[in-house]
Amino acid sequence: MTEPIKLLRIYTDEAAYFGDRKVFELIASRAREAGLAGVTILEALLGFGRAAHVHRRHVLESDRAVVIEIVDAETKLRAFASELSDIPDVGLVTLEAVEVIGGTAARQLGQTGESD
After folding, report:
1. What does the angle CA 111 – CA 112 – CA 116 come to, to the nearest 5 degrees?
2. Percentage above 70 pLDDT, the chain
3. Residue 35, CA distances (Å) to 30, 51, 55, 84 in order
4. Helix, strand or coil for residue 69?
5. Can you tell me whether residue 111 is helix, strand or coil?
6. Alpha-helix residue ranges (DSSP H) falling in 47-110
7. Where residue 78 falls among pLDDT bands split at 50, 70, 90?
8. Which of 34, 36, 39, 64 has the smallest number of CB atoms closer than 10 Å to its CB?
9. pLDDT beyond 80 at 62
10. How far apart are CA 83 and CA 108, in angstroms?
């Protein structure tokens, strides 16, 4: 039996920095170093969180909400999420059940589409 596959979703904003690196770039880099299956970074058209600050792209500045999605085995994602505790501007972090039904990445995740 294969380990449950989950979706780790991290909400942050485009203008968040950790040192001299953007938070979303740092998280993507760490995900690659951790050997996670892959990462997708989505830029929202509009968004706000607990602080009710509306994030959107302006002509002279970039302050959109950003969503980082990573699909992999649950234990790997939980370990990775705990390693992000040193980044203060990471927003909401969620872990959701997903069903991998196909695609070339399914083999990397150990999901072949065949019944166990």
Report:
1. 85
2. 76
3. 9, 33, 31, 15
4. strand
5. coil
6. 74-82, 105-108
7. very high
8. 34
9. no
10. 23
